[in-house]
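Forwarding these from the shared drive since the link keeps breaking.
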Amino acid sequence: MSNHYTIPIFIPELACHYKCIYCNQQKISGMMKIPSSDEIIQTFDKYLSTINYKNNDVEIGFFGGSFTGLSMEKQKELLLLTQPYVDKKKVQSIRLSTRPDYINEELLDLLLKYNVNTIELGAQSMDDEVLKFSGRGHVAEDVRRSAKLIKDFGFNLGLQMMIGLPLDTPQKAMATAKEIIDLGANNTRIYPTLVIKNTPLEDLYNKGIYQPLTMDETIMQVKELVKLFEAAEVNIIRIGLHPSEGLLSGDDLIAGPFHPSFKELVMTELWKDLLMHLFNNNNSDKNLFVFTSAKAYNFAVGYYGSNRKHLQKYYKTVSFKVDELLKGNEFYVDYY
C-alpha cells in the first residue's frame, strides 16, 4: 500500500490583500519571507531525497498565501518550477490554497494546463455574519460559486473551516460542515480559532470583547464535526494548526485551544464514545482484547493511554491489538 506525501511550499501573505482579524501568517506558518525559486527547488529536492517516489504518491502543495491572487505571470513562474518533477513522475499532483473570491474560469484554465489537481478554499464559515465580523472580505455565496466552478472543471475540492470565530456557535459550525459536504468537497481541514500576537483579534481579546473556546469545548465540537465528515467520506487532511516554533514556545500565542497533539486529543474522545459500551461493566475477572485497524490503534488506546487506563478499571487486563483486515474506525472485542 502506497503512502501519501506532500511537499509544502509556504507563500505567507504574498497575495492576500485582506486582513482577517485572526490572521498573522508569518506567526502561524513560521515563515518570515517568501522563498526564492532556488529555495523552492531545494525544498523539492530535499523532500524527494527522503521519499521513495516510485512507490508512493507525492504532491507539491502551495500553502499560506492566496495563490490565485498572484499575477498570472507569478503563478506561471511558480508552477513552471514543478513541471520537471511532474514530467519525470517524481511528483504525481499539485495542490494549492486560495480565497473563494480569487477563482474564475481563466485562472482555472491556467491551473489545468500546469497539472494542478486540488484547489483548497479557505471557507472558514458559511455564515455571513461570522465572515463579515472576521474581516474575510467575501460572503458565503462566493464559496458556493467557486466550489461549483472548481468541481465543474474537474479539480478535487478542499474546503477549510474554522470554529470559535467571533459570533460563531456550535450550531453555525455544524451548518458550515454540512454545507461543505453538500458542495462536494473531497477534503477539509478543521482549525480552532487561536488568538495570535499582533492581530486585531488580540485587541478584541485584551478588551474582553472576544473569548476563545476552551480546550474541552473545542475538542467536543471538533469531535462531532469529525463524525459528520467521516460519515460523508470527506477526507479530513488536518485537525488543528501546524505547530510552528512560535506556537510551541508560546511566544506568538496569546490565548486559545492550541495543543501540538490536538488531533490525538480529539480522536481519543471519539474513540472513548465508540468504546463507551465497554465501560461501567463489572468484568473484573475477564481479560479484554480490543482489535482495531493500524491507523486507529493509537487513537483507540488514547492520548497517553487514557482509554486503556479507563477500561482497566473494569477488567482484569486490557489489550489493544491490530487487525490488518479492519479499516478506519472498525473494531471488535473479545474476552478471555
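-- next protein --
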Amino acid sequence: MKRYIGVLLISIMFVNCKETTSAQQQIKIKETQASEIRDIMSLLASDELEGRDTGSEGLEKAALFVEKEFKNSGIKPYFETYRDVFDAKGTETFNVVGYLKGTDEKLANEFIILGAHLDHIGTGKEVDGDTIANGANDNAAGSTAVITLAKQLSALKSNKRSILFVLFGAEEKGLLGSKHLAGILKEKNIDLYTMVNFEMIGVPLNNKSYKAYITGYEKSNMAAKINEYSGSELIGFLPKAKEFQLFQRSDNYPFYKQFNVPCQTISTFDFTNYQYYHHVDDEVSEMNFEFMASLIDACVPSILKISNTATKEIKLN
C-alpha cells in the first residue's frame, strides 16, 4: 500500500484571461523524502555506473533506470522510444526524453522542458586508489531533480501545458545532446515556452538569502516570476555565475539559441561550497539529501504555475 507522508497543501491560482477574478484550486503535493533522493542518487552515482561516460555501459544502466522510473510514473516517451539517439564525435549516444501531455486542449500545444545532463566524465585523477568520477553533484543531482519532478507532476496531472523531461547525453563533450535535441525540436516547430535546467544542486549555497541561483539572471524575468509563483525568495543572482559565463555552459543554452525564449539553469554551486568538480571525490556521501528534497519541492508550485498561466508570463528582457 502506498504511504503518502507529509502531504503539503498549496493553493495554485489559475487566471482566466476573460475573468476579472481568479479561481483557487487546491492541489495535494506529496512531500519528497530525503530517503527517496538518497536512493536515486545512490544508483546514479554508484561505482557500478563507472562515471556515466558517453557511450559507456554505465551510462546505459543509468538510462535504463530513468526509463523505468518514467514508465512507472506514467511519463510516456516523446519519440517512438524514450531514446533520442545521436552521434557524439564518433560515439553513438542518446538523450532520454519523457513526455507529459498538457490537460488543456489549447495550451497542450505549448511546451516546457525540464532538463539535466545524465552523463559524466567516467574517470579522473586517482585518489587513494579510486579513479571513478561518480559525478554525484555533477550531475546525478540535477538528474534526480528531473526524475523526482516527473513523478510529482505526473501524479498531479494538473499541467495545462505539455512538459518534456529530458536527461541529456554528452553534455561533458560540449553540450552535444542538448544541441541535437534543440535542433530536432526546432525542425518539428514545437511551440517552446521555456526551458528550466538543473545543474549541481547537491549542496546548499553559502551565506545566501535565496535557495538557488539562476544563470542568465538578467536575460529574462524568470527569477522574478519563479519567486512570485513560489511566494518566497527561491531564486537569486550570483555574480560569479555571470563572471564565469555559466549561462552559455549548460544545456539551457542550445535551446535559447534555437528558440530565442527564456531557457536558464538552476544551480547551487557557488564556487565556495563544493571543491570536487570533475573530481573522483564527487561522491554521494558529500550530498545533502534534505536540502535537495526541499529545493525540489519548492520548485513544484512554480513549475505548476508556469504550466498553467493563461499567457506566457516569463519573457526575455
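The first strand starts at residue 7 and ends at 14. The chain has one domain: 33-308.

- D.
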